[in-house]
Amino acid sequence: MAQEECSPLMRTDHFDAEERGETLAHASRFKWLSKISRTVLVGLLVVETVAFVVLLLKQPSRCVKTCTIPLKSHEVLYSPALDAVEHEVKVYNVGFGDFSPFQIPSSPALDKKWSDLYNFGISRITKEEAAQLPNKTHAIPGDDGHYIAELDVFHNLHCLNKIRMALDPDYYSDWRISTTNNYIPSQKNATDHVGHCIDWIRQSLMCSSDTSVIVWQWHNSLNTSVVKGNVAHTCRNFSKIREWAKDRTLLASYDPSVHIEDDIVIPIFHSNFD
């Protein structure tokens, strides 16, 4: 019984010549359409693959300023100073009553304190270290085998110092900047520099994203809870980073007008200043 029900699907002896001709023609058209469909599909796949490869090749240059590439939580980009990183717990000076040594009036003494934080920050690194950087840097003229570099923390400190100076233009007249209602053409360089520094530090703070937690605690005398900023932070030991940089300070002044060819190739990341 089951075989009789299935037999129409297998039957070949009850078709006349016309039916067989139509069936063969239909089958031929089906094969032809299938072949075209497969050809079109393969063609589309090839086009999409080529477009994807082109996109990948162009992506590094398009990502110079705006691209964000996710990393796993334990991954970091290479830096020659990674070996100097040592973590410690610190509690900040809040600055209201518990003043830090940097909270003194503008003076030569204060200038020296700030300068001592970063005046050694331009470093010389080896070619081996330079070749591992995610961005290409330049060789140092007259110092074979060494390349110029700067840890970003020292640029941040330089920038913050210039903002500090701009906040006291009566003392630092060269750093008086234009304000909303007072444009000072002669101070364009200072105004632009401070604008750059503010936004650079903004980006650096967002990049670092300190997740230490500021808390609120009950104040009996005020009969209210108050914010407490003197909390524990996980920090990188700045003294260790400073020692690393001091050991690699440039031996002589750097001449940026001398171009030196090298064979270092950075295949993925590109400098913003290429």
Helix and strand topology:
Layout lengths: L1 H9 L6 H46 L24 E5 L16 H11 L3 E5 H5 L14 E5 L1 H15 L21 H21 L6 E5 L4 E5 L3 E5 L1 H9 L28
Summarize the helix and strand pattern as letters.
Answer: HHEHEHEHHEEEH
The major β-sheet equals: 2 strands, antiparallel
Please count the beta strands (DSSP E, at least 2 residues each): 6
Radius of gyration using CA atoms only: 34 Å
Structural category? alpha+beta
The N- to C-terminal Cα distance equals 81 Å
Nearest-integer average pLDDT:
81
Number of helical elements:
7
Stretches with pLDDT under 50, minimum 5 residues: 1-27, 44-64
Task: State the helical fraction.
Answer: 40-55%
Strand content is 5-15%
The rough form would be described as globular
Which strands sit side by side, in order, in the main sheet?
1-6
List keywords for this structure.
UstYa-like, 6 strands, two-stranded antiparallel sheet, alpha+beta, 274 residues, globular, disordered N terminus, Tat pathway signal sequence
Task: Describe it.
With 274 residues, the chain is of the alpha+beta class. Helices cover 42% and strands 11% of the residues. The chain has 7 helices and 6 strands. The chain has helices at 2-10, 17-62, 108-118, 127-131, 152-166, 188-208, 238-246, and strands at residues 87-91, 122-126, 146-150, 215-219, 224-228, 232-236. It has a two-stranded antiparallel ribbon with strand order 1-6. Strands 2-3 form a two-stranded antiparallel sheet. The protein has a two-stranded antiparallel sheet with strand order 4-5. Strand 4 (215-219) and strand 5 form a beta hairpin. It starts with a helix and ends in a 28-residue tail after the last helix. 8% of the residues are buried.
